[in-house]
Design goal:
Blueprint: E1 12-13, E2 19-26, E3 32-38, H1 42-53, E4 60-64, E5 72-78, H2 81-109, H3 120-154
Antiparallel strand pairs: 1-2, 2-3, 3-5, 4-5
Helix pairs in contact: 1-2
Length: about 160
């Protein structure tokens, strides 16, 4: 039998006893809930929003950081929100495990690009050189157009005065 959850209590508490996720606003049937994720920022907020929106039953999911100096985010979910958040957290954990496994395997076998394999400095020099050339071409074209407009207004056709 599933354990009943008292939603007046924090949803997740850390091993230190600190509230990690709390509900700060909800409807009576919990179909629209705003969670507060303490000690988190846009990194987790954006990926949790993305994971929640992958669920077809989610009508809305968004997050905000109330203030840059406060280390917390608010995550708003519209549907059966608590279940959705737990599913998203579980899916995110699975995704990170997969990435970590693949990364560790590639690292072990040396199957990755290193800075030595790619000359960043030469690439930056090429980009800067191209940009400088385009800038100078544009500058010359503007100067030419300016000279032509000045020449047409000043010289024009000779007019005889009687």
């Amino acid at each position: 039998m599933a354990q009943e959850v008292d939603f007046n209590e924090p949803v997740i508490t850390t091993s230190d006893g600190l509230d990690k996720i709390t509900i700060i606003h909800n409807t009576p049937n919990y179909d629209m809930v705003t969670f507060c994720l303490h000690e988190e920022d846009h990194t987790l907020g954006n990926v949790l929003r993305w994971m929640c929106m992958k669920d077809d039953d989610v009508e809305f999911c968004g997050y905000s950081a109330p203030h840059p100096s406060e280390p917390k985010i608010h995550l708003r979910i519209q549907m059966h929100a608590v279940t959705c958040l737990m599913t998203a957290l579980s899916n995110l954990k699975d995704l990170y495990k997969t990435i970590d496994t693949k990364y560790a395997a590639d690292l072990k076998h040396g199957d990755f690009t290193t800075e030595d394999d790619y000359d960043v400095s030469a690439n930056v020099d090429e980009i800067v050189s191209d940009a400088r050339g385009r800038f100078e071409d544009r500058k010359r074209a503007q100067q030419q157009a300016q000279l032509e407009s000045q020449g047409a207004g000043a010289g024009g056709e000779d007019v005889e005065m009687a």
